[in-house]
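Example 596.
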Amino acid sequence: MSQETITRIQGGSFLIKEVSLEDVFTPEDFTEEHRMIAETAEQFVANEVVPRIEELEAKKEGLNEELLRKAAEIGLLGAGVPQAYGGEGLDQISSTILAEKTGRYGSFATTFGAHTGIGTLPIVYFGREQQKSKYLPKLASGEWIAAYALTEAESGSDALNARTKAALSPDGQHYLLNGTKMFITNAAFAHVFITFAKVDGEKFTAFVVERDFPGVSVGPEEHKMGIRGSSTRTLILENARVPAENVLGEVGNGHKIAFNVLNFGRFKLGASVVAGVRYVTNEAIRYAQGRRQFGKPIIEFGAIQHKLAEMAIQILCAESMVYRTVGLIDAAMCSIDKTSPQAAVETLKALEDYVVECSVIKVANSEILDFVVDEALQIYGGYGYSEDYPVERCYRDARINRIFEGTNEINRLLITGQLLKRAMKGQLGLIAASQRLLAESLSFPAPAEDNGSLLSVERRLVASAKKMFLLASGVAVQKYRDKMAEQQEVLSLLSDLVIGVYAMESLLLRVLKGVGRDGPARWGLQAKAAEVFIHSQLTALEDKTRQILAATSEGDELRTHLAALRRFAKAMPVDVIRRRQEIAQKLNEAGKYCLS
Ligand SMILES: Cc1cc2nc3c(=O)[nH]c(=O)nc-3n(C[C@H](O)[C@H](O)[C@H](O)COP(=O)(O)OP(=O)(O)OC[C@H]3O[C@@H](n4cnc5c(N)ncnc54)[C@H](O)[C@@H]3O)c2cc1C
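Predicted structure in complex with flavin-adenine dinucleotide:
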């Protein structure tokens, strides 16, 4: 399928519109080139990185740089860098495939992501010509490594509250930067730090700071719980002399760089954890096949089958969300003239439209990873708790993903905050849709009939989940109005509804598209996965909607809303236990994850 055939779809509109199958990108739509990129990246990690995990964990000096340079030799570092500056200038889908396939080992994924993503992309999108030609060829070739320095001791989530100051020298040639940045990935060996400081203590600004500039140094390594093979240090700026030409973008516009780049970073993080999820699941399947208790392999026990089936279902779902989203982003970017001087700005504008989807993926997939490593460790029993087995490291490595690139709490607030902001500005028809639904629910319409076709019930349930969001958000907005931003618990629950809708729908659309193309036989197992996922999710979302309604309405009004909710959520339960058993049986036969 050519990407040009996907229609540009407005970000966030999935909550109010039906999506047609032609407009959904899935891993099955990869071109031959995409498949080759996937294979190259996977082979690189398997052959070059995995054999050296022990050395990386022991912080062998020079090894991360060596691996990054090797990755550069086969073009893995320059995916996001235009060809004119020595990169590959790959499309968004290819860059996402790279992020995903290099994600198997958390430490390397972090090192790689910080360099190619948040370290390099600010220069790609905001750099002036002279900055691009000076830095990008070096970054694409791995000669130089990049880092991104935003966080400070007093300003983490509240990043704009930075204390680091920049003062222009009297001759206007240099800025003197003073301050300390915390937790900077790649700090041990980075040559370039995208650093944020306030000019005159007020104007939040981005700078390209070279390690060798006078006054720049780094602190000792942090002793971390996980991703120990990556470097995390403070960046210390003591009268650091940064040439005035190294201001990135405009003075006072650093927030645009910081947040747009983090948006990219979040999406890529969500993509990269998928490889980790798949790896850990495969290890758990193999272990469960080999480990015998009570005279048989533990994979034959229902309790273990339940876990493995859920893990596999979550992988299918995580992948579906990632590739659906990059399909949307890529379609939006297809229309941009890459040779125009406005190309970078338009690219960012296109990406900004999908800020909700990017945060959804960051939160959903980091939590899927945590779920999967936790279940995998449980399957290993006491051995999972031992450093002798890789699952112990994976468990520790996974945890950071809910904290960096914006904590999941902040991303949840951002999801609903962005949606409501667009709704208030009239850019997204949420308010009208919600009012229609509230009016409709007063007239007690009969529940829609299912037509009996494959996954028709689940289609209706996804539509019901959207109604739950519209109902709950409509009632909440009516109650809190301009105080809505203060209602964090409600906003976070609403985000869970958004995440649930996107996850359910992405999985459903992928399966339906597959069935349409290859027939139901090839997609039978995945259809079962979709049934299990959607029915279980709907119950969870119904509970969250109930919590919001109970907090935002009372008496007869609450009773009316709850009656509407019961109608949306009405569904004959499917036998999810049998379906999980069937999925687990196939995993056992394949000896690995086999849903995609
Ligand atoms: C291994 C590692 C690598 C990192 N790499 C980098 C890097 O390369 N570059 C960089 O700049 N930073 C990096 N970071 C920093 C990371 O991005 C921050 O730790 C993160 O943004 C959270 O900031 P904080 O730790 O100060 O937590 P805080 O902001 O203090 O948050 C503490 C808790 O309060 C919650 N909270 C905060 N504000 C709110 C609010 N308004 N509403 C509700 N809850 C709230 C948070 O969700 C969290 O649960 C890294 C961190 C680690 C641990």
